Amino acid sequence: MNIKEIISKMTLEEKAGLCSGMNYWETKPVERLGIPSVLMTDGPHGLRKTNTGPSSKDRTSVPSTCFPPAVLSACSFDTELLFEIGTAIAEEALTEEIRIILGPGVNIKRSPLCGRNFEYFSEDPYLAGEMATAFIKGAEAKGVGTSLKHFAANNQETRRWSSDSRIDERTLREIYLPAFKKAVEEAQPATVMCSYNRVNGEYASESYRLLTEILRDQWGFDGIVVSDWGAVNDRVKGLAAGLELEMPGVAEPSNDAYIVDAVRSGKLKEEVLDLAVERLLKLIIRVHPDAHSDRSNAASNAPGQNIKEVKSFDKEEHNKLARKVAAESIVLLKNENNILPLGKDKSIVFIGEFAETPRYQGAGSSRVNPIKITSALDAAEAYCGITFCKGYNASDCDEPDRVLEDEAVSAAKTADVCVIFAGLPPAYESEGYDRTHMHMPGGQNMLIEAVSAANPNTVVVLHNGSPVEMPWANKVKGIIEAYLGGQAGGGAVVDILFGVSNPCGKLAESFPKKLSDNPSYLYYLGERDLTEYREGIFVGYRYYDTKEMETLFPFGHGLSYTAFEYSNLRLSSVSIKDTDTLSVSVDIKNTGSIEGKEIVQLYTAQKEKDDRLIRANKELKGFAKVSLTPGETKTISFKLDKSAFAYFNTEINDWHVLSAVYEVIIGRSCTNIALSAEVTVESTIEIPFKADENTTVRDIIRMKNGETFYMEMADKSPLLSRFKEPPDPGTPEYMHYKAIPEMVPRQVRLMGLLPGMSLEDVKNIIDEKLNK
User: What does the angle CA 599 – CA 604 – CA 606 come to, to the nearest 5 degrees?
Assistant: First the structure.
């Protein structure tokens, strides 16, 4: 029996019922037709399988590997590593008969204040898209579906069920949609999860433009759209827009009745419902080994055809992978006088509760019940003896605990090196609410100040889900950004501290010096339900870099225990059309004494900007992670196509390249530039433009035949004819010459500079010479 036959045998009520959940985590089965239920669960960085809803007092989930959340794993800039994470989580899902993992999350980090930033990859859409694509491919290669979320423009937790994200089209396309586009086009996730919020006045759950025109028609998505839990506003409108599955399915009476009534009344065509059911059945076939239907009817790339039931997984191997991911992602922010790595013969004191009881994940729906937890204090026992001082109480450290602080200072005075484990307590950031500031707890800041004053050889290890202000940054010799490291993060931190692992992570977000430096500062959270994205495309480093504003630590920054030399940047051509591909290669050499990995970052920039387009100084368009032994050199290659130079043009509703000279930039970070080369890119798409009497001279000259037209008009004007050649700067004539580009034909005629020509004459000659 194929899908069409199954649908023909289903009652209207069964069709409507298939479009909502049976409970919190499962879809409804249709047993008489052999349609099984599909189990899904949260899983961006590990499984959270529970059998209860939020009203239950028992929220315990099955033990699972807690991998580093996206805030840390993104700093690896390693797509192969993300593929491994996806594969491992899928293996664990199969042991629990879970068919869909609710992740990854690719929402852009518009502000450091978002309470859910720990669950998202980056402020940069290119990086977020690459990491998400790799994760999805890894999971779905095992036959487990994923859910790309939260579509779209869900960048705050405040009023998340009612807020309206007001974003101009170019910003939406260049910043907030590309990560989704990349993952859909290249990985085809089984599902896309729509967000709670409204986008430009319309709930995402009922936006035909988002869910059908963009997601399916433009990007070719062939899975289903599932609502975020409780995101449905109008079920019938949502179904018509392209929302196939409503979750959860616990409300009584359910929304299924609205669908049935809408079909019977003619408000909703049954063909629309049938299409949703067809897509749902294809999904079930794709991810469920017991689906009663011909697999040939599933999506052509359905990995479910290769589902193998897994009864167990190697817990220790997954724990090793979690430790590896953390070690490959941790960022060494500062290493003054090479205080790191630590020598095992040194007297070392660990200070801070997080050394003993690590903060390793965020709070909310992604919270994992870890199989095991390794603290830095426990892991350090394998290297040397460590003195430990608690330093503060994580649950109450807004003010210093003088007894604990004095104990820490006393220990610091006799130690060779002090390592302070600090950061944000769980209550400071979580799904469901946003932060109101970027401060660390006052008690922790004062502890760092006191210890570093007692012993300048102080290193701070940070555990936080989003950037923090560091008023003490110049007073300590080392800073390690460990973010939230997952269940094995403590071991990874110690591996970095003692040099067993050479740090190779780079920041996937900018660290502003203070909150008010952030471009969204004046508008974030908005006014009541209205949130205006007035900063436009200038998010994260795109803003700081373009504004020439110094950050505490820039996007892409990260140090190593070795050194790398960049040389021999080569482009395959110095001039291309936007339909061509540009090959880029660069040599990287390890000039240090130990093996290490470097993340090579490629940015593009329009060399000379003009009034045709406002754009950022540079944008990330490629990266590669390379491992090098001492003295070794490798060549890294990139391929750049139209997307590396394009912006979204709202006139043609498509991507467009301005004909211009561009720089191809190779950097150690977005501000630490190693090499650059120029390429001229010629657009093959002409933007329709019609001149009239109010078109400036500068725009006329840019048109085809525009310069010739201008010279002809200059011959008719006593003033303009004097300025065919530029006069000497400093002369009165030079002022007039510089003002010419801003003039318009109507004004030129009114000033008596086109004698004998009426306004109609001016219009006619413009149409004849320029608009034909």
Answer: 160
Residue among 228, 256, 434, 545 flagged as catalytic: 228
| Arithmetic mean of pLDDT, 455-478 | 98
- For tokens 């998505």, name the residue: 221
698/710 Cα distance (integer angstroms): 10
Distance CA 772, CA 632 (A): 60
Whether 399 and 442 have beta carbons less than 8 Å apart is answered as: yes
Q: Where does 561-650 show beta strands of DSSP type E?
A: 564-571, 575-577, 582-590, 596-606, 619-628, 633-640, 647-649
**Predicted confidence band of residue 293 (pLDDT cuts 50, 70, 90):** very low
Using the CB atoms, write b or e for 348-377: b if 16+ within 10 Å: bbbbbbbbbebbbbbbbbbbbbbbeebbbb
Q: Is the pLDDT of residue 303 over 80?
A: no
Contact 669, 556 (CB under 8 A): yes
Q: Cβ–Cβ contacts within 10 Å for residue 134, how many? A: 23
Dist CA 308 CA 289 (whole Å): 8
Mean pLDDT confidence for 249-259: 91
- Residue 201, phi-psi category: left (phi > 0), alpha (psi -120 to 50), beta (remainder): left
Mode of pairing for the β-strands spanning 191-194 and 145-151: parallel
DSSP 224: E
| Beta bridge pairs of residue 638 | 584
117, 363 Cβ separation under 8 angstroms: no
Output the pTM of the full model: 0.95
Concatenate the DSSP letters of all residues of 121-153 into one string: --S-HHHHHHHHHHHHHHHHTTT-EEEEEEETT
Q: What is the mean pLDDT of residues 741-747?
A: 90
* 404 vs 388: CA distance, rounded Å: 11
533 pLDDT higher than 80? yes
**Residue 307 tokens, joined:** 């589902």
**Closest listed residue to residue 198, CA positions, set 520, 526, 619:** 526
60: pLDDT strictly greater than 90:
no
Q: CA 163, CA 665: separation in Å to the nearest integer? A: 38
Residue 563 sits at the vertex; the CA angle it makes with 558 and 564, to the nearest 5 degrees, is: 90
Residue 228 appears among annotated catalytic residues: yes
Higher pLDDT, 23 or 306: 23
Give residues with Cβ within 8 angstroms of 381, minimum separation 6.
none
The per-residue pLDDT for 256 is 96
Please answer whether residues 504 and 459 qualify as being in contact, where contact means their C-beta atoms are separated by less than 8 angstroms. no
At residue 211, what is the residue type? Answer: L
Q: Reduced to 3 states, what is the DSSP secondary structure of residue 207? A: coil
Q: Read off φ and ψ for residue 246, nearest 5 degrees.
A: -95, 130
Residue that is written with structure tokens 């049935």 in the block = 260
- Minimal CA–CA distance to 88: which of 268, 288, 321? 321
Tell me the pairing of strands 100-102 and 145-151.
Answer: parallel
Residue 29 has pLDDT above 60, yes or no: yes
Q: Which residues contact 186 (CB under 8 A, 6 or more apart)?
A: 133
CA distance 706 to 128: 42
Q: Which tens digit of pLDDT belongs to each residue from 537-549?
A: 999 999 999 999 9
Look up residue 176 and give its amino acid: Y
Rounded distance, CA 121 to CA 108, Å? 8
| Strand partners for 531 | 165
